[in-house]
## 1
Amino acid sequence: MKQNKNTGIILLVIITLVFFLSGCIGPFNLQNPANQDEFRKGNDGILINFLDNAPPSETYEDYPFSIGLMLKNAGAYDTNGGIISFTVEEDYIDLLDNNDIRFNLKGKSLALPIGDQKTEVIRAKAKKISGQSEMHTSKILTSICYPYQTKKSVDVCIDTDIYNIKNIQKVCNVKDITLTTQGAPVAITKIESEMLSSEDENIVKPSFEIYVKNVGDGIAFAKEKVNDACSSAPLKYEELNAVEIKVMMSGEELQCREKILKLKENKDSVRCVFEKGISTEKFVYTTPLTIELNYGYSTSISKDILIKKE
Amino acid sequence: MRKIILITFIFLLFLSFGCTPKTEDSVDYRKGTQGIVMNFMEDMPPAKMYDNMPIDLVVEIRNKGAYPQPNPITGWAINVINPNAKGIGTLYLSGFDDKIVTGMPKQMKIPELEGKTSYNLEGGFDTVLFHGNIVDLSSRKIDTNYNAEFLVISCYNYETIAYQTVCIDPDPYSIKQKTKVCTVPPSYSLSGGQGAPVAVTKIEETTLANKIQFIIYIKNVGSGKVIDKNRLNIDCPYSLSSENLDKVYVSGRVSGYSLSCKPRNPITLTKGERIVVCTIPKPTMSRSAYTTPLQIKLEYGYSSSIQRSVEILNTP
């Protein structure tokens, strides 16, 4: 009799547990998986830092030393074919290794949430200090030049009833979109949407004024000039602060007034129009607008090294 | 003891009579302010979906009103002008990018749905399936999520039938002392609707020199738009204007007469309301006051909408 009672209690406990557990496995509940947009935050591209004590703060003449760099892709885009360049006072320091180092670094992504990083070390040697001087402070300058990208997709409203004559419920309203940063040193800061009427009254032309800004602490330049930017080759005026823009709406490219933006005082804007137009027979809808910026970017760091006489 | 059991049995039998269902006449199915009511079936579609897969959108449709009836009342002054119209109306789907959600039908017929009757107090129910496919977002160079809006707009024909027992008194100001079966009240209030989104809310009766006048108050008591039923298939839902909005066709009968109403059909609701003045010839003075049902019929098109957002997730 007692055994039966115990069996009953155990059965009750099991049933209760099954009920509780079944509550944990709810209906089909799709969690938002991380997508590339999750990583498109911040205003950094490739970050560089000298390694500790490389170069050292002090050294003696005729002594070799190392210049070490830590490179980290803190942005959300891959870079291929970046260049590291070192500049030293040739009267005081000799670079013993090749001064033309290339790098590829993957950006932050699902597979690599913290971004790729690498170290580069080159050998250098302090030259003899000539004359009466007991010591000399020399500057070591390191620059990196790399191709980079900024990409952002936002849902925009396509309103085919510009003058509100259809008296219809609209799923969205045409409005301006303010953005912050997209995990890159050049950012899309604002999108002003407008629906333009056309000579053909059966279509409307979605138009977007896109604002772009250099939010990093480096210089943007034409993406093809990565090699020149970190060399003694001069850059033309039109190649400096030049950012290429490509705008797609629902997979089709928009026509932008200029394909290359010139960031005067670090910012510029451009109007892009879907010239093909959208039929007014279509109803108000939302669609993704994808903006892609391609450019070269360059940042520099420097460190003073005190060279003493032995 | 047997007597007690017998008495108890008889007593229970009497009580059980009170438990019998109400007769069909006592059930007022012409109540309420709704017509065709739509809602999305739960998780059809879900709030979040991956790209590159089929999508099903299921709209549940309930006829919460009292139109149509299995045996419609005939003999009205106004008849349906387009007798060839199939189905009660149409559902229109919009709000999303059809290059991303492809193959979705843009419109579907609303199935024939019986209105509420004394046998079916819930009204008709059916579902409409919109099936499509979500393309691979990456193939359209989209590497983030997309919020698709699904807006379903219904456009359908509907009718309101309002009944009110009125007192017809050909000589209400008679000084002769007569026993009357009824007197004309200041107004008849019709609250709660008549099982349709447009309702008769009040009727005022006046006996004039040679006619009986009824002032009929009409109101859009639903949450949608009233549309000219003759423009429904042409203008609804995308070309609505003052030309076709808020139009109602009014007709009625009382005491064997058809109502003669002003303004002429279709009347236009202003801010969702309107007064219509209808008359019938006055019966002979010799006739004493009597009660009779006043039947009012309103015909119109109606449109309402539902919306759901679906976040389409870019497959990593």
## 2
Amino acid sequence: MAQALADVTGVETIKTLVACLGVPDFTVDELAQQTGVSRRTVDTVVRRYQYAFDRLPSGKQDGPGRPPVRWRLRSNYLDEVLAAVDSHQSALDADWRSEVADAPGRDSAEASLIMAAAALARGSDDAEQAKQLVAVARNSLGAAGFGSDGSPWTGQPDQELAGRARFIAAVADVADACLSDDQQRIDQAQARAIPHLEDAKRYMSATEWMPLAQKVLRAPGTVLSAPVLVEKSSVSYFRKLFPTLRAFLRKKDMPTGFVFMADARAEQPASSTPVMSLLKFKNSAETKRKWVDIAGLPDCVVVSKKTEVLEPAAEYGAHFILHRENEAAKIEIANVVNWRAAWGDELPGAVTPVASPRVLRASGEPHTARYALDAGAVPDDQAQMAWEELPVAERHAALGEALSHLPPQGQQLMALLVEDPPVPYADISARLGIPVGSIGPMRARYLDKLRRDPAIAALITGELDTLIDMLQIHQAG
Amino acid sequence: MYPGDAWKVHAALAHQLLDTWPVCPKAQQVLQSELEDWSLRTEDNAEKYLRLITRRLRSADIERRALHALDGVQDEFRQVDEYLRSMFEAALVLTRDCYQGWADWPVASVDLGVAAVSNPVYPDPASFGELGVVACVPPREEPEAPAIVKLTFVPGLLGPPSWASVPYLLCHELICHVNQAAPMSSEDPFAEGWMDLVALQLHNQWAEKIFPWAPALARSAATRLSDGVLRRWRGLPEPHMRTRALRSQGREAAQWIQEKLGPFHDPSKVPPELIRLSLQLNRVSATVADRLEFISKINCGRSNPRLQASLLARLRLWLENIEKADRVLSFT
């Protein structure tokens, strides 16, 4: 018996035990046929766990010989059977999955990945639900044929699914790390995820990619994912903030007075060239004196404890961070560098109208980096709104794009039709040189075109009124 | 012609052509083009519009059977509201009895709301006659307020298949949403995918009672709509691609559980195990995250014996009345 059991593989035991759970009762032959495991093996496993089974009264046998024994799993031994499955599964090799299951079909795998991404994008302020959503993402990766690290267990999946899975797995790690509040874990997860951002853009729609990219880039990590230029007299300050910053000698195209530095923790930098310049100003006189030198550099992060320094810096178009607390400043600097590394000068199409993050306004609290359109004009609370109102901006962008696909006459007509106060049809007719009777049908045709435009179809539900409202908002904006 | 009048005219025509629709391709073609042009008609009176459209069908040399069917269309026009009301009442009573038999039905009252819009609600490349009506349960402003099942008709698409799909849509809303003990979300794969399979199966059992005029057409329209919506998700604009993909995940999970419950099927118990379990699961107080996790665990469990064994154990204990459905929902 002992030898027979030793010959049975973990996979066969697992298949047999799971199959026992999935039928009300069975004979060894029936279970062998159902699982594809040999009769001898099923018999060995059943005898090994015999205490967990009831032997049922034998039925009538059709042919000669004794009727086969029927077994039934005892309800009060289910936990033991689960523990046995668990222990056998834990002992299997890394590629056990391909031995116990078939790879999912492509449609099913893709739908699972969409579900994984949707769960992560959904997020939750409730920690328990946020953990559940990370679990959903990882389970869905499993259902799609990938491990929780995004590596496939199904052999060679297609490149697109593999690229999406890698990114989703990396975002799940970031979300998980953020829930742990462990700074080192957050830093590591964010540093691993950032290099996947660019690749994932190739395989995901902007609407799917954007919320996940935000999860990565808004995570309170402190790794600088791309090189920066640090003003020479500020190097010691920034090295104190980022002890892993290393200086590199780069003579070519190097602006005077700056040091090329990169964070050693960024194993795969998102850019080979510096994406930001970092400066620390002590007072406003220094701001004016130094500004002449720094004009023409990549965007700047100016750090100062004195608010009066920040106003003139903002006028020159710098991002700035009001430094009140080291940890907060560190995270905010990393945030702005990482945003810039991921998106360059422009944000992705869906949020272009919000403009690139011109100013980083720090509230002095950790993890509260906000972006606004204009440093001087936007008070803190409005700056906070800028991102929260992203869907409106998305609508503007989509509508702008859809309008640009209309012929010039269509664009003019739609603009006149949503003017406030309304322009009389006779005036529209005179201005555009079209008969009054044609305005209505043309309007219907152009609205239909707008509604069907891929850029806008995602944002509306087909209601004419919704589209007209959007046009009016767009016009007003 | 206003959409609020046009849908009634088109519903009357659809009702009258139910029997002849599948065998009259020419009538299908002519009706499609007439319905598409509804918004160009200048009549402001529904009965006049109905006479006009009937005249146009008659003059288009359509099949004799379809011509004869048009004879009673004026009477049908006056009955449309009554037909809708009777479909709704029948579906409501059947759903309530089913929930009361196997779970619970705490909903005080449910009303029917009807609206019409000019443009298609979904961006599907659907065949004519599909998606001419959509349904939803709008969130209640106050918990004591009656639940409302709202049907929205799209006159340009409202052919007989859409009219015949009304009972399935009512069943979907009543079975999946009106009595669900979780917040409403179009991204809930349990409500939209899993429970939709249950709604489809119950609808198919009840078709004679809800749509006595053409139960077979109601079944085929329901299956086509439910399955079609699940199949068509790739390439759709967001949020449709995401909500459809999630729906398909819920459906896959339900089908897999149905298969797993197969060996335990007890023919003496009606409805079958999946339906009983689902009605109870839908009444378990849960968040959308709970439901997403449940569906994702089931689908992951297909390739993970540990999860699969745990689920099967909970199902056995539920089948033996040792544990309640909430333990199935939270299996780990």
## 3
Amino acid sequence: MLQDYHAVLVFLITGVAMVCTPLILGLLFRPKNDYAEKTMPYECGEDPIGDAQIRFDMRFYTTALIFIIFEVEIAFMFPWAHVFNSAPDKLFALGAGLIFIFIVFLGLIVDWAKGDLDWVKTFDTNKRRVQD
Amino acid sequence: MNEFFAEYPLVFTMATTLAKIVLFTHIGLILAAYMPWVERKVSAWMQDRVGPNRVGYAGLGQPIADALKFIFKEDPVPGHVDKVLFTLAPALTVIPAILVLAVVPFAPAVSLFGQTAQMAIADLSVGILFVFAFSSLAVYGITLAGWASNSKYPLIGGVRSAAQMVSYELCLGLSVVGVFMAAQTLRLTDIVELQVDGYWNMFTQPIGFLVFVIAAFAETNRLPFDLPEAETELVAGYHTEYGSMKFAMFFAGEYMAMFVFSCLVAVLFMGGWDVPFMSNESFAALGNWGAALGFVAFLTKVLLFLFFYVWVRFTIPRFKFDQLMHLGWKVLIPLSLLNILWAGLWNMPS
């Protein structure tokens, strides 16, 4: 059992070696000729203004939050799927699973209705919109 | 030999494991190196051009020439970057992609010297969990590359990539739940053996197959989902500041991930090493020739799917970011939940 994971460990070492070898090999051969203009961040020739490690869009945070919740739900679904076919009463097993999935899906619907899944946020424009 | 290995089975296991690691990593690396050549040739063929034809016969020496160039080119590191993360990020995209290969079964079990060897480097009982654990690590590489570069285009590419990959990770996870419901196991070898002489999962679960394929495209950042790179708007996205070997690492990581996901599609949905009209018994009857036949069949499926990757790239234009999120959350997740219902009803005793 544990033997299989030894193989994974050996493979991991192989993988790391495969990545490090070309990086180190290049380090020995390649020229190094840095000057101030060359080490500037690339912005299509413009001088960059300010730091780039800034606070970015809030919508990425919401997406990550919803992701974590759903990922945990999927982790709960794997054991159920694993034993599903050997359940004594499959109809009951499917029903139980579907109730769980329905509750998960309800969460998705709530997010959907609240507009958390919309990337382009729309506001209630009816008050401002000219009748077209 | 037979008596020796019967007495020391551990020596046999170690020897075969090392042989498998050498063999399978070479298959992966050679395919990853030649995929850019294939891609350029196929795109040239589709657009009525000639494609690479200078280095060697039909440009076949191109990958070697590129690799040499990557080694000898200067590697300018911008002054504003976070040096540690900047160097770590390329490695973090390649290593997980390679590691997933550990659980992919390439062929039926081979018998040598009276012992049997599974044709996966590590035939883990939690195979698919291993796949998800490591393939999701790839998001760190890309996001860290975007953040560590400390430049505006990479930052946008990096956060976009994080949002895209986590969104499609959900569809990927949900679409294989149906496969486990049918197979009752997470071991990839068993999943293939159940499809041999039965139905391939792509026929019994067409919705799951569709969702998995779309999510595989998004997870590998390939067109039509290459928003993290999007060269028309973000220069080169998350790897704008990278040059030389570090850039080559991102490149290799992307093609390695394509190879790995092609393997997974073949294993989970297209019957792995199965050849139509062959049963597990007829594979066993052929002995090691059956394993060789299965290996060829498996590679054929993988290569066909890699061709499909290239085909799609030159057929479908890129999505906008809001369309991408819409497709992921509002179309694919409900569809993959529907697939679970479908799989449940399909496996009902009639």
## 4
Amino acid sequence: MNLQLITLEVVVTLIGATILLGSLWLPADKRRHLPLVAAAALVVLLIAHCFAMGVDTTTTLHGFGGGIVQDGFAICLKRLFLASAAFVLAMSAPFVERLRAGPGEFCALILFALVGMLFAASANDFVMLFVSVELITVTFYVLTSFQRHETRSLEAGAKYLILGGVATGLMVFGISLIFAGSGTMSLREISKLDPLPNLMLFNAGLLLVVAGLGFKIAIVPFQLWAPDVYQGSPTPVTAFLAVGSKIAGFALLMRLLRHTSRPETGFLLDALAALAAFSMIYGSLCAIWQRQLKRLMAYIGISSAGYLLIGVIAMAKGFDGTKAILFYLAAYLFAAMATFTVIGLISKEGEDERSEILNGLHKRSPGLALTLTLSIVSLAGIPPLAGFFGKFLLLQLLLEMAVNNAAYYWLLGIALACIVASLAFFFGIIRAVYWPSDVALSRATAPAAPIPTSLPLKISLAICVTGIILLGLQPDVFLDLIQETVRAFRWQ
Amino acid sequence: MKSVGLEHYLIVCALLFCLGLLGVIIQRNLIVMYMGLELMLNAANLALVACSHFLNKLDGQILVFFVITVAAAEVAVGLALIVAICRRKQSTDVADLNSLKL
């Protein structure tokens, strides 16, 4: 047992428990500051983890019977999760009045979901994989339906509950078949087994587990829940679902595929390449006509999952996709967090977040309008911002794969076409922000007053914008930083 | 006479699992769908225990404990959610969950 490997998880759990107890003792009017306290604690933890805790990124450590692994890749992912949870808590601060239920419970649940994500980053056997996924999913059942007084929040919760439950069922049954086919639960031992005792059972199980994880990352054909759940959930929860839960799913999928990748399971990677193509096409096409902002983010998330899947396939095939994937994830994190923060700020309680609420935003709050524009530009993959460079790195990886297998040129063509198609939703948003039609303006009931933005939110938006711009203009700085952490990284 | 082997257990588990999945897909009542989900999880549990027995490894049984615990947590959260929906809509039919549209 090596407790050092789970320091972060233990500390975050303690913060969550403290917040939960603190909300019992605090007077009601003080409780609304709890999200900011939690966010500040996470920022301190993140800085300490980066500079002070003496985390050794050059060695791979195993603990808890091989269930937990700590390597450069897991460390990078954990930092992304901490950052995303801090952004989410910061944007929940002005949101707590709309929740009508305890802000303490809300923060604690976000922190417990974060613990699940941190475990997911270093899960190295099927027991840890299952427990971390479920810790995330069960807390999200509560979080999605947290606004119990709103029908749409309850509906989002019910849809996530049923489809998440199906995903859990598929995953557990898949794990049992993998266990029957290989005789072990450890990913490391599976990667060393040659030949597998029962290949057919193993392949069937692997297919089911990938399907279960497919729900979490919302790839076609497991994406059906995403638009509805994204629309109905409270906005900070949607942001956490879109960023944290998705990255956790990818972390698990990458480790799973890397360790199980062998010639006999090659069919799975080909199937995933097809799913990546479908996800990109589906996401970009549906985004074109979508005028509900949170649904739009769901479709952007689906196509992003398609691009990321390319990187995952490349990694499973043995290419070095670590940097490309981490870069894309960081770019997606900043842009998505900024977008959701702005959406949360400008939508009023109980209002459906249609793009009409953006009408004339540049006159009301030029700063928010600029932030939204930059993040949408980055999400659409237009140079020179972060999202463009992330997609560029992934497509470069695809080009390397295509040298050996010409079929990947098709995937490359589809990816390029989808990037062009995603320009359409970008123009829709920009038009609503800067040049709303007169008809839309006259119908708008929103007052033209500037939108009040608290200082912590201004700081978090400023960090997002800086991230988007820096990652786009100076990608080398960030890539070197990742390189430094994953330098000695080997899959083990 | 042939004794009962791992494959027999796995066939029963697969059947149970498909029944559960079918229940989730064709039923229209949230509570009955939830029963289908539980059936899926229990089919997986049975498979894990059977594998553990025939492979002489305890790993599967350990996971079963986790699955049972998680299923209990899931039921607690899920039924609370279904009760909240039922109070608001006076119905547990999924056809009534229709406010989230384009």
